[in-house]
């Protein structure tokens, strides 16, 4: 059997087993280009108990299976870097072990097993930056991001209040017609959470036990250093004063063709002189009788 036939057989078997859970794209020559499968832990189809997932992407070099496939894990969710790195190590070992034989199904099973084992978010809460401890109540969004329920509630309430404040400042015609849509603080996907339920959650343990913030001498030193840096940057023009910028009507730029203006100018500002002055950022208040209409 040729290499191509062997690969075709492997892919057909995969599609028969995994059905919609796997997708294979082919190049213009009909060779498999990319095999993709999003893998979840085995939780006996209890989707709401799947806390982690990852998408496996496999590219097959022409010599596959006599050489190793190129494997990548995309969008690992609920997994910290060290868990992902360990997974990559096991994948590499499996590929070496299966050199010369079909390995894709083995990889999928390996990843699924590993996800089932670590089916608890090992990442931090993106709001408070503390880990998830035993007993903490946490929420998984539809986009597979994790937050302490307490943190997510506070985040949603704050963004909603901020949204309302911004809306209140706008004239009626500019107000959004749609109401507030909560979005994930990490990836900005729209999320729908039961806010009333989140509201009842207790603060995460690590946050409760955290020491009160104190300005230490180290912090003071850092503050002083930052203050100096700020003044230095300001003196170099590196800090933009937003308020001053908003009141500025014209930008000051250097004119490269200064003096090349109208040489037959009448007394008073000619078009050329006016242009040069505008470029220098100066402002003209024309007397009404000048007949010029630059507005
Ligand atoms: Zn948190
Ligand atoms: Zn998200």
Please tell me about this protein's structure.
The protein is of the alpha+beta class and 295 residues long. The protein folds into four domains: 3-117, Ubiquitin Conjugating Enzyme (Roll), CATH 3.10.110.10; 138-209, Herpes Virus-1 (2-Layer Sandwich), CATH 3.30.40; 217-247; 249-295, no CATH class. 38% of the residues lie in helices and 11% in strands. The protein contains nine helices and six strands, in the order αββββααββαααααα. The chain has helices at residues 3-18, 81-97, 104-117, 149-169, 195-199, 205-209, 217-235, 242-247, 271-280, and strands spanning 23-26, 32-39, 53-59, 70-77, 138-140, 146-148. The chain has a four-stranded antiparallel beta sheet with strand order 1-2-3-4. Strands 5-6 form a two-stranded antiparallel ribbon. A hairpin with a 5-residue loop joins strand 5 (138-140) and strand 6 (146-148). Helix 2 (81-97) packs antiparallel against helix 3 (104-117). The longest helix has 21 residues, at 149-169. It is extended, with a radius of gyration of 31 Å. The N and C termini lie far apart (82 Å). The model is unreliable at 259-270 and 281-295 (pLDDT under 50). It binds zinc ion (ZN) (2 copies).
The CATH topology of the largest domain is what? Ubiquitin Conjugating Enzyme
The main sheet comes to: 4 strands, antiparallel
Tally of domains: 4
Q: CATH H level of the largest domain: which superfamily?
A: Ubiquitin Conjugating Enzyme
Q: Please report the first level of CATH classification, the CATH class of the largest domain.
A: Alpha Beta
What is the share of helical residues? 25-40%
State the helix count.
9
What strand line-up does the widest sheet have?
A: 1-2-3-4
Given helix and strand content, the structural type is: alpha+beta
Low-confidence runs = 259-270, 281-295
Number of E strands:
6
Order of helices and strands: HEEEEHHEEHHHHHH
Indicate the CATH architecture of the largest domain: Roll
**Bound ions, cofactors and other small molecules, one mention each:** zinc ion
Shape: extended
Strand content: 5-15%
Determine Rg (CA atoms, Å).
31 Å
Mean pLDDT metric: 83
Distance between the termini: 82 Å
